[in-house]
From TrEMBL:
Protein name: HTH cro/C1-type domain-containing protein
SUPFAM superfamilies, alphabetized: lambda repressor-like DNA-binding domains
Originating species: Paenibacillus wynnii
GO terms, molecular function: DNA binding
Residue ranges occupied by any HTH cro/C1-type domain in the UniProt entry: 6-60
Amino acid sequence: MDREALRAIRIYHGMTQLQFSAALNVSKSCIASAESGYRNVSDNLRVRVAQRFGMSEEVVKAVKDARTSANIG
């Protein structure tokens, strides 16, 4: 999971960075730093996202769509 995937999952669930961080029990700065690329998405954060939000087909599709639109723009 990279920064684009993390952001896509958050947006797919309609959450702000603050809401997303609270759901994952991490700081908002952790999410903001990971999404901006300032810090890598840690294994711990990957596990938390998978445990909390899963990786359903809809989530995987949202990540792919986000990556496609990022490449277009």
